[in-house]
Write a structure and sequence with these properties.
This protein is of the alpha+beta class. The protein contains 4 helices and 9 strands, in the order H-H-E-E-E-E-E-E-H-H-E-E-E. The longest helix is centred in the first third of the chain and has 17 residues.
């Protein structure tokens, strides 16, 4: 009977750990969550020949949310933003995607507050100079699919550290863009 109780207790502990949300446990986060809470001025259609080579989001809002808002808050929970990453996936039948964009940036998001980022690039020269978008510049169509429209899903996430030194990253935020010749 004693063995069964120990086994049951260990199973419960394992279930608790397995049930933890991966977003809050991937990095320590220093008691805060970083969230991309708003987009304004998203690109919807990008011309490979006319949009080269700097596609931007007009305005994004990053929010620093305390995991325990009723607990003690400190300036050490402020997040210094270090970089962001944009990863592309296809929403059409194609498989080729531009290389990820990784950009170093700086700024501080106060705990319980927000920071507004303006005109941050989500595509640069490197994305335009690689397939599949390069096919539009060279041939006028995507050679993989034969289409004159490429539907891309952009995933953007931000990385930083609390002032106390704990790594923090936002969950990815997604939006779709059509690329045309």
């Amino acid at each position: 009977m004693n063995r069964m109780i120990k086994t049951l207790a260990l199973t419960c502990v394992a279930l608790v750990f397995a049930g933890c949300e991966s977003r809050t446990d991937k990095t320590d986060g220093g008691g805060v969550l970083l969230s991309l809470s708003d987009f304004d001025g998203l690109p919807v259609v990008v011309s490979a020949s006319g949009g080269c080579c700097n596609v931007v989001i007009e305005e994004m809002t990053l929010q620093n949310i305390a995991k325990n808002p009723n607990g003690d808050l400190s300036d050490l929970m402020n997040v210094e933003i270090q970089s962001y990453e944009v990863v592309y996936t296809r929403e059409d039948t194609g498989t080729r995607v531009p290389p990820p964009l990784v950009q170093s940036i700086f700024g501080v998001v106060p705990v319980g507050g927000t920071s507004t980022l303006e005109n941050y690039p989500v595509m640069r020269t490197d994305q335009f100079n690689n397939v599949p978008i390069k096919d539009f510049l060279d041939y006028g169509y995507d050679r993989e699919t034969g289409s004159t429209v490429i539907r891309l899903r952009f995933g953007i996430r931000f990385f930083g550290r609390t002032l106390s030194g704990d790594s923090v990253e936002s969950a990815p935020a997604y939006f779709s863009v059509e690329v045309v010749p």
